[in-house]
Design brief:
single chain; 411 residues; alpha/beta; Rossmann fold; 3 domains; 9-stranded mixed β-sheet; 7-stranded mixed β-sheet; disordered C terminus
């Protein structure tokens, strides 16, 4: 049986590249026909390797525009950083000429750093990932800015001005959220940081913080992309951030910074209000109170992350979450919901729930949808802790537009 490394060498060869191009051109055709066609171009193992790599490239397209020229492994792809997030992070290293990518894997972050103008020392100990890495930096056109070192960065940390570290969260093949099981674990981070002017850590998207209201033990940044949490960052040395908490909302680049102010007092929704469904980075970073105070908004409940504000506040709140207009209010019994939906001729509904037991599908089964209009139904709790239903429509563009429509800024 051919080894994985030998199959990667085949895929990187002119014959393998030709087979991958053919696989890409025949996507969407019958799977059996594709396999039979590739069997005629090489061995059965080669055909399986080509189809497997093409499948990984299809999945990688959601993370990088370079997907169709890269060589990948399944595990490396699952932990790889989406390009907008990697590009944003690479900007942090602008003051440094040479950056070490510690545990470079197949090169997503190495490529982002090189494209940002840095010289990169990419260290990776897994020979399969090293083979992918060598191919990928060349395919991305940055091989002249990257020096690849096959080895253990803990045993021999490379010389560089700063370093980036993405600890392996699958050391035994299964994802873990326990930092003590990361590779390397937290005990290794400070000694590594001491070797460089700056070290930046990539950690899981939602890293548990101290349960109290005070600042995190290390200044922390939470990053989302298109309304989905992607990573947590912590810096050391010259890369340590100056504020306890920061949220970065990509792709717009909106930034919220602060210490995590307590939420204002809650209030009940009013017809015509703007309802803000905040970006998760704002919520997880505990900066929702900072946003609310800065823009005169109030939570709908003491512990539920929906904000209410006047229509005049919509432009200022637009970068921090999805905005909805409060068109109707009601109870949550089947009779009350039917009355509310019928009054607005609603037949298609996007249901959002927060702070209640039943998920959206359970509520959907209780509805009788007979109308012709589409709307959003928010089912949550009010200030008195009782269930309520809010029927919402989009906020007009002139009143603030969609989430992420403004440039980066601070509340």
């Amino acid at each position: 049986m051919t080894s994985e490394l030998d199959l990667l060498r085949f895929l990187a060869s002119p014959r393998g590249q030709d087979a991958l191009a053919h696989a890409r051109a025949t996507r969407g055709l019958d799977a059996m026909a594709r396999r039979a066609d590739l069997d005629r171009r090489g061995t059965g193992e080669e055909a399986r390797a080509v189809l497997s790599m093409d499948g990984l490239r299809v999945r990688a397209a959601a993370k990088t525009p370079l997907a169709d020229v890269l060589l990948l492994t399944k595990d490396a792809l699952e932990q790889a950083t989406p390009a907008p997030v990697a590009d944003d992070r690479a900007k942090r290293f602008a003051p440094f000429a040479r950056v070490a990518d510690l545990g470079a894997s197949v090169g997503f972050d190495t490529i982002a750093l090189a494209l940002a103008g840095r010289e990169v020392v990419a260290v990776e100990r897994d020979p399969v990932r090293v083979a992918c890495l060598r191919h990928n930096v060349a395919a991305a056109g940055v091989a002249d800015r990257v020096r690849i070192v096959e080895g253990d960065f803990l045993a021999e940390p490379p010389e560089a001005d700063a370093a980036f570290l993405d600890p392996d969260r699958r050391p035994d093949g299964r994802r873990t959220r326990d930092p003590e099981r990361f590779e390397p674990p937290p005990a290794a981070w400070a000694p590594l940081a001491a070797r460089y002017r700056g070290l930046l850590l990539k950690l899981p998207p939602v890293l548990e913080d101290d349960p109290g209201a005070g600042p995190p033990p290390i200044a922390t940044e939470w990053v989302s992309l298109d309304g989905e949490m992607k990573e947590t960052r912590r810096g050391f040395g010259a890369l340590e951030q100056r504020v306890p908490r920061r949220a970065v909302l990509l792709p717009a680049g909106t930034v919220v910074e602060g210490e995590g102010r307590p939420w204002p007092s809650p209030r009940a929704p009013l017809l015509g209000d703007v309802l803000v469904d905040p970006d998760p980075a704002v919520v997880v970073s505990r900066l929702l109170g900072d946003v609310a105070h800065a823009h005169g908004a109030h939570p709908i409940h003491p512990r539920i992350a929906y904000l209410l504000a006047s229509p005049e506040a919509a432009p200022g709140l637009a970068p921090f979450g999805a905005l909805l207009r409060v068109d109707g209010l009601g109870g949550t019994s089947p009779t009350d919901l039917a009355r509310l939906l019928d009054a607005f001729d609603v037949g298609r509904v996007d249901i959002r729930t927060r702070g209640i037991e039943d998920p959206p599908d359970a509520w959907r089964r209780r509805l009788r949808l007979r109308g012709s209009r589409a709307a959003t139904l928010v089912i949550t709790r009010g200030p008195d802790d009782r269930y309520l239903a809010v029927l919402s429509g989009p906020v007009p563009a002139g009143a603030g537009g969609a989430s992420g429509s403004r440039p980066a800024g601070r509340p």
